[in-house]
Design brief:
The protein contains 15 helices and 14 strands. It has 414 residues and is α/β, with parallel strands linked by helices. The protein has two domains: 224 residues, Glycogen Phosphorylase B (Rossmann fold); 179 residues, Glycogen Phosphorylase B (Rossmann fold, 3-Layer(aba) Sandwich).
Length: 414
């Protein structure tokens, strides 16, 4: 079997969890004997083509003129033209017959659907998140409504759609009006071997906090829906009970300046450190050195950070929402709190930070709970089964004009 994967990020270009997901999936598919070809955005210092870990990677630059990435729709259309320019000669001259196209999220939808119809190849789509969900059930402006329609179009054109959690499957079936049997749940995975290093607490503390302070960690893209602002708002209350505490924020994103302004306004610059991008090896040491990892998302389809913290042996507190509820069993594998509620979060943080036995029990039970169920090799096998189903069930039909279902009432925000 050969698969052509389209993704807007792939190592060394890592913007969020999607790039890590696509990389691990591609590598493990290759290990199972699948011919894997990935076409993706270019990255500084990375070659236009390379074969790495059995995966053929083709990187494309954008066309001029330069469009700010914040202008998502025109930026994405420009990027998709670049994807097509690279993919067409690959299919014509180099790769040969491809059995499946696999598109990851709406940012590659136009190219994926064009290739599907031009070459009559079955299309599989993975929906990692939706615009509807990212805005808590609202589509506040024209751009959000366009993205929503492109997401729907991608799922409509696909033979099979993959989601990472039951929560996401239910959301996608409901808002895009998909037949439930068209959507398969395959969770994200964890690179277990990466977390088998010893903790390096001393080095981490010397570099970022005083040696005798405890440490709470957040890892993720700095966007509003990740909820870092909730932790910042909770910190004054937590510090009343746990004064020897520092909160480290690992990640980058458009919400970073607003978060830093919050920190300064509360006078907490000496207690809250914005670390920026942290590579995977250093991140493991942070997890292993932290006293607690907090995942305060307002919207979270899955929650890869939760798995990483659990495997590293760090207790977790998560917002009671989305796919997080499928990983964290309250009072057993972690604690949950009301999303967006600083008081609820503060109480949970204080409990774990002041009760060492509770923290150790949560960590121990979490490691038993996850076991090997999030193994990437198993996930790759499950994805291969979806590919085989797509090939069996595929019947080419010319593209027809079809309108997106009505936008859900709750999404028609101001």
């Amino acid at each position: 079997m050969k698969v052509l994967i389209l993704s807007w990020e792939y190592p060394p270009r890592i913007v969020g969890g999607l790039g890590t997901h696509v990389h691990q999936l591609a590598v493990n598919l290759a290990r199972l004997g699948v011919g894997v070809h990935v076409v993706t955005k270019d990255a500084e210092g990375a070659p236009d083509y390379e074969e790495s870990e059995g995966v053929h990677i083709y990187r494309v630059p954008l066309y001029p003129p330069q469009i700010p990435q914040d202008d998502w729709v025109p930026w994405t259309l420009q990027f998709n033209v670049a994807l097509l320019e690279r993919a067409v000669p690959l299919l014509n001259e180099r790769i040969g017959k491809v059995h499946v196209l696999h598109a990851h999220d709406w940012l590659v939808a136009h190219a994926a659907i064009a290739l599907k119809h031009a070459y009559r190849i079955p299309l599989v789509a993975t929906i990692h998140a939706t615009e509807y969900g990212r805005h808590q059930g609202r589509l506040p402006g024209p751009m959000q409504k366009i993205i929503h329609q492109v997401e729907w179009w991608l799922t409509y054109e696909s033979v099979c759609t993959i989601c990472c959690s039951n929560y996401m499957r239910d959301e996608v079936v409901r808002i895009f009006e998909l037949p439930p049997d068209k959507v398969t749940v395959i969770p994200n995975g964890i690179e277990y071997d990466l977390f088998r290093v010893k903790p390096d607490r001393g080095r981490i503390h010397r570099q970022f906090v005083y040696p005798d302070r405890r440490m709470v960690l957040f890892v993720g893209r700095l966007v509003y829906e990740k909820g870092v602002q909730t932790v910042i708002e909770a910190m004054p209350k937590v510090l009343e009970e746990v004064p020897d505490l520092c909160f480290l924020v690992a990640g980058t994103g458009p919400h970073a300046r607003a978060l830093q302004a919050m920190v300064e306004e509360l006078g907490l610059s000496h207690k809250i450190k914005m670390l920026g991008f942290v590579d995977s090896e250093a991140l493991v040491k942070f997890y292993k050195s932290a006293d607690l990892t907090v995942v305060p998302s307002l919207y979270e389809p899955f929650g890869m950070v939760v798995l990483e913290a659990m495997v590293a042996g760090c207790p977790v507190i998560v917002a009671d929402t989305g796919g997080l509820k499928e990983i964290v069993v309250h009072e057993e594998t972690g604690l949950r709190f009301r999303p967006g509620d600083p008081e609820s979060l503060a109480q949970a943080m204080i409990r774990v930070l002041k009760d060492r036995e509770l923290a150790q029990r949560l960590s121990r039970d979490a490691m038993k709970f996850i076991g090997e169920r999030y193994n990437w090799r198993r996930i790759a096998r499950n994805t291969m089964e979806v590919y085989e189903k797509a090939v069996r069930e595929y019947e080419y039909r010319p593209r027809t004009l079809r309108l997106c279902p009505p936008i859900p009432e709750s999404a028609n925000g101001g």
